[in-house]
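Continuing the batch. This is chain 6 of the set; chains 1 through 5 are on the previous pages. Same settings as before, nothing changed between runs. Recording input and output for traceability.
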Amino acid sequence: RRPPRAKAPTLLHWETLWAAATASQPSCAGRSDGGGLTTRVMFLNHSLFIFPVSQSDTEFWDKMQAEWEEMARRNWISENQEAQNQVTVSASEKGYYFHTENPFKDWPGAFEEGLKRLKEGDLPVTILFMEAAILQDPGDAEAWQFLGITQAENENEQAAIVALQRCLELQPNNLKALMALAVSYTNTGHQQDACEALKNWIKQNPKYKYLVKSKKGSPGLTRRMSKSPVDSSVLEGVKELYLEAAHQNGDVIDPDLQTGLGVLFHLSGEFNRAIDAFNAALTVRPEDYSLWNRLGATLANGDRSEEAVEAYTRALEIQPGFIRSRYNLGISCINLGAYREAVSNFLTALSLQRKSRNQQQVPHPAISGNIWAALRIALSLMDQPELFQAANLGDLDVLLRAFNLDP
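Output for chain 6:
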């Protein structure tokens, strides 16, 4: 029987825990995961963290905080430090960190091979092939697009943003990149930028751009990245554009337009309307695993974790290698008090990354910090100090054996 849900720790207390848990992650293109937290955590691709523990269990949280702070004072996963040393940044490519030991850097047809690996669900290797394609042709906007989308699916939001921005510099009318960038901005707390990307999606869309021209008096949007809450008049203005576009379509459902509406409703906290929008998109694209994931995260943020689990599970049925959805499923399991299932999902995600790396003899990408941090939280909630220590040391093999999972 699932234990009753109790009051979550205060936001300030949780921010302290999460900041300490992720403090030792290597920075990638200026990444700083701790600063974007609000009461709705990491929106479209992350669930709200609610811990069903005793309200009076202050000793537990004090102990947890001490453990996180101690962990933050040392490099708890040696792999991450190694990965940091294995990547470099090229100033000419706007701060994107490329793997310097990419075995596919001279691969003929790297882009096509990357698409093949993406279809197979091998996200880490897809990233390496897309990086190789870009190094061979830095002006390949489509390669930047797929690199950005794959980085987001592989739980590396900041790298996704940099890649998608570069894509749009090369190809401003790339609608897929604009929508993906809006989602990534939302996840990182850049609400103003998310609104701007969504408005630009309308402006660049031949079907809807006339709507923007007819509303020249609508509030302008800033180009400077900011984590301050979006101005309500700006948000409502962009939302009005999307609603008018949907009205013009009549009974015809545009799944991309509905996805944008879902993001906008999510930004305004209208989770039920966001759920309706994503469900509408899914009637047209029932096999779109990214839509199922966004639906799941919206359900979770709307305090409907049981339904979120179903949506994440569907996403993983379609794309078993979707690491972000596996991570999100683990978070929803924590919300439901199913800690063992949460741990299993986090370990599966880490194992998928490692299997890909070992099979291809490629360096470990610096993308696992969020998953390791969530894993340690789940193990702490299970009161498994010996396994917590294994996670603290980054010993994946010990943990996989403990939970009877394949290495």
